[in-house]
Design a protein that fits this description.
alpha/beta; Aldehyde Dehydrogenase, Chain A, domain 1; Aldehyde Dehydrogenase, Chain A, domain 2; 2 domains; seven-stranded mixed sheet; six-stranded mixed sheet
């Protein structure tokens, strides 16, 4: 295993393929089995990453442990905060590089990546650099059995080495959402990005080093799950905690692997989110808002509603409005003019989504629009595109209405009363998010409080204040992230009792 001293050399192109190596101790490492990284908009390989073996994972853990016992572990809070702001500055300074890398990995439209993914990647570091300076503590006076006094107060310390397993749908945004608070609390991190989207995480290693981050604080290992880097990271005794965003099935596997070491876990998992549209809603706003919610990022957003319950008196009007929005979407290459629908992440995922499209028809759905693959020309013909799809006529207990699809699709179902709508929306094994559309503020409060979810929007969707708790109920996750909730996970409280 050889170390490359020059970071930028490993981020140049070799032939036509970008080389994405494991990043340990502020350097890119030789070694690991190469695997392809594919541009889903064209179906063509655009980069080559290297699967970390046990030796590389061990080296990453050792580098992180050394950082905790070195300069990073003794750094003042003020210096740590300043470094995080420099990292944010570095992302912004190399905005175009991050944008190109994110688009190549995901195929998402330029407008989305430039307005959401990259700006939030930088913002996450600023938010948690500031949040860590305002963490409350507790102090209690007490009487002692001998008639004296004692005072108790709490302090927080970092957990140590934290394993971060990040998803492919919003790679930079969701990775930094975990890394930023972990570093703000003084931990060292080892990130295992999705094998589908490793580019921006790898590039962030350069930004960290250029900002002056001590070696070993931020490490990146590439690979897969079982039998690969993911399992090695989760089961490593030197890793003190795991944070993961992804499928519920993968989350349960991580729980089993982490159990022998009783590691703290933070999970944001799958969902089958519901939206409720009441007859008194601003219908134009509801249609526009839910079109964005269903089709943003080609439906590959954990918060996207795949079940829409609409009051019967406005059902037909809503369906026609959402259909018009779906038919107006233009799929194609991310840099194309007016393109607002990118590909699915992989050929495998497209086949999964198309399988559900076929299942919907088998279950008796009325296909309002879509249901197949768009006819595209040029490079996009090889991409992993599907049509935006809407269904009516499905029973609430159909598989289409129970299982997460993670594509640009939704089933629309009528309801007749508020009580029925709440019951239908909550009748799910998942509980990540919901959105309610109504002109009655009291109803919005009332129904929102009954939703068995981690986050519920009223007359909006994906409106985020990063200080608020974010996470899922039921099978949609464990714990909460955001603001003080992230700080609480990535740090350990210690009570100190002083006899006076």
């Amino acid at each position: 295993m050889q170390v490359h001293d020059t970071l930028k050399r490993e981020e140049t192109h070799t032939g036509t393929l970008r080389q994405l190596r494991n990043f340990v101790g502020n350097a890119y490492l030789e070694g690991g089995k190469p695997f392809p990284v594919v541009d889903p908009a064209t179906g063509q390989q655009h980069a080559q990453a290297f699967e970390a073996d046990q030796a590389i994972v061990d080296a990453a853990v050792k580098a992180a442990e050394n950082a905790m016992h070195g300069e990073w572990g003794s750094m003042t809070l003020a210096a740590r905060r300043a470094l995080l702001h420099k990292v944010a500055d570095g992302i912004e300074a190399r905005f175009d590089e991050f944008l190109a890398a994110e688009i190549a990995d995901t195929g998402k439209p330029h407008a989305m990546a430039s307005h959401l993914d990259i700006p939030r990647g930088a913002a996450n570091f600023r938010v948690f650099a500031d949040a860590i300076a305002n963490v409350p503590t507790e102090a209690f006076d007490m009487d002692t059995p001998d008639g004296g006094k004692a005072v108790n107060y709490s302090v927080r310390r970092p957990l140590g080495v934290v394993g971060v397993i990040s998803p492919w749908n919003l790679p930079l945004l969701l990775m930094t959402w975990k890394v930023a608070p972990a570093l703000a609390c003084g931990n060292a991190v080892i990130v295992k990005p999705s094998e589908e989207t490793p580019s921006t995480t790898t590039l962030l290693g350069e930004v960290m080093a250029d900002a002056g981050m001590p070696a070993g604080v931020f490490n990146v290992i590439h690979g897969f799950g079982p039998g690969s880097a993911g399992e090695m990271l989760v089961s490593h005794p030197g890793v003190r905690a795991i944070t993961f965003t992804g499928e519920t099935q993968t989350g349960t596997a991580i729980m089993r692997a982490a159990a022998p070491h009783v590691k703290p876990l933070s999970f944001e998992l799958g969902g089958k989110n519901a939206a409720i549209v009441f007859a008194d809603a601003d219908m134009d706003a509801a249609v526009a808002g839910l079109a964005r919610a269903v089709f943003l990022n080609t439906g590959q957003v954990c918060l996207a509603p795949e079940r829409i319950y609409v009051e019967r008196s406005v059902f037909d009007r809503f369906v026609e409005g959402l259909k018009d929005k779906a038919l107006a979407l233009r799929p194609g290459l991310p840099t194309g003019n007016g393109i607002d629908l990118g590909p699915l992440i992989s050929a495998e995922h497209r086949e999964k989504v198309l399988g559900y499209y076929r299942l919907a028809e088998e279950e008796g759905a009325n296909v309002v629009c879509g249901g197949g693959v768009p006819d595209l020309e040029g490079e996009a013909a090889g991409g992993f595109f599907v049509e935006p799809t809407l269904w009516t006529g499905l029973p609430h207990d159909a598989r289409i209405c129970r299982e997460e699809i993670f594509g640009p699709c939704a089933a629309i179902i009528p309801f007749d009363s508020e009580e029925e709508a709440v019951s239908l929306a909550n009748d799910s094994a998942y509980g990540l998010a919901a959105s309610i559309w109504t002109g009655n503020l009291s109803r919005g409060h009332r129904v929102g409080a009954k939703m068995e979810v981690g986050i519920c929007w009223v007359n909006s969707w994906f409106l985020r204040d990063l200080r608020t708790p974010f996470g899922g109920a039921k099978m949609s996750g464990i714990g909460r992230e955001g603001g003080i909730h992230s700080i609480n996970f990535y740090s350990e409280p210690t009570n100190i009792c002083i006899k006076l």
